[in-house]
Amino acid sequence: MGNLNKEQIAKLAEHLETAELEAFEVTKITDEFPEMTYQDAFDIQWEIRRRKEARGTKIVGMKMGLTSWAKMAQMGVEQPCYGFLADYFSVPEGGDIKHDGLIHPKIEAELAFVTKHELTGPGCHIGDVLRATDFVMPAVEVIDSRYKDFKFDLKSVIADNSSSSRFITGGRMADVAELDLKNLGVVMEVNGQVVQTGAGAAVLGHPAASVAMLANMLGERGESIPAGSFIMIGAITAAVQMNKGDSFVVRYQGLGSLSGRFV
Ligand code: 0L1
Ligand code: MG
Q1: Which residues form the Fumarylacetoacetase-like C-terminal domain (predicted)?
Q2: pTM
Q3: Which terminal CB of the chain, N or C, has fewer other CB atoms within 10 Å?
């Protein structure tokens, strides 16, 4: 059930998208609209997506967010969320990320699944995801909540496309059968110092569980994950704030590394 009308949804989508495109902070939208529901929040996110597509932007993937206990505790929320990835979010491996075009970026070590069969919910489970996966590859997400000081609640975050902003993917593609996804280790280094370490199981107990949850959440809106989708599973480690001039490398057990620099 939604409590906001079409005009309110459209206005809030414009407000949050403008903050994203022009890189300015806003206060969380539930302050002004405390009656907002989860359906309203997703309606705003989908309206931002529609606005971008109407301007010719391509949607190149989906992301799950807040999928680890570390992230949920860090941000004070109790369940995961999803967002979409637009074509201009993609940064080449080893590339420069313009800090001035963002508000207060943080990086997260993630993995991406690329599917070869459609996944539909409800009832999608890890086994379905593993069977439908073409390959898995390293991914780093740059999140940049439009909310001042990353202070928000889950509904406000969902409306803000789950803080999506940039992502890098690359390294080695691998078949799920050759990986121990639960124990797959990642090491994040910033300016040559190890700042975070983690293993795949940090994400909902198994990385594939995150993709299954996405299929089930999309199922609630009559949507699915089509074959050929690129899906980021959420952070394996806590997010790390990046300043202008910072460089990072994330090393993935058996899958190579991803690097980048904020300029
Ligand atoms: O990708 C994520 O896990 C982040 C989702 C939104 C919450 C945040 O901005 O930290
Ligand atoms: Mg993320």
Answers
A1: 104-262
A2: 0.97
A3: N
